[in-house]
Design a protein that fits this description.
8 helices; Rossmann fold; about 20% strand; alpha/beta; single chain; globular
Length: about 240
Amino acid sequence: MDRHGDGLPGGAGFDRIAARYDRWYEKPVNRFIDKLEERNLKRLLPPGKEGSLLLDAGVGTGHSVALAKAAGYRVVGLDKSGGMLEIAAAKPDMDALLVMGDAHVLPFPDASFDAVLSVTALEFLKKPGLAVDEMARCLKPGGTMVIGVLNALSYLGLERKLLRKATFRDAHFYRVGELRRMLSPIGEVRTDTCAFMLPWEWLLPAGESLEKVGKAIAPGFGQFIVAAVTKPAAEVKDRSGESG
């Protein structure tokens, strides 16, 4: 999970920003935006049963582990950045098996997980379609994959690209339809958008009201897109030749 890495697809780039990653959450406005994102992720992530296992692909510093645990899952968190995993492992409340690995070639057998979660990770991968295929391969039939990405049509998405901020220069932000098309070979896709409030502290008192208005009149422009797809018994299509 990486909201403000340097956009490099390899682990080394994220290693350099690992120590300051969680500082993003120190600002009240960012914590509020994160709360909105988590609320929408929870809405689409089905509750785990006893013993259910979830893969957090692109776990970063482990911020999304708590969400998965609260939903009733045992968690395996994978990331390519050793620096990110070190920060995650050092957290006193970390309760997950952390594994270094590449999302393009997941080191797990077929049908290993009851659910897969990936939050702000696809944006930084060279071949996101291949990573989605790998996550689908590792998902049990009947299991659900939940993906959260940054919206290319949101204020922050447009700002980051127009200003060519180094942090996101090589990142690929998504539109709702694009994400749906990527996941549709797996099964029926459900999507939602959230976090319509602009990142300004003085707007915080109106945050919930702005969220309701945004969802009602401009649902395609929230900062964060969440998509969920449940894997049927049929095989998924292979996109291994896709480039990011």
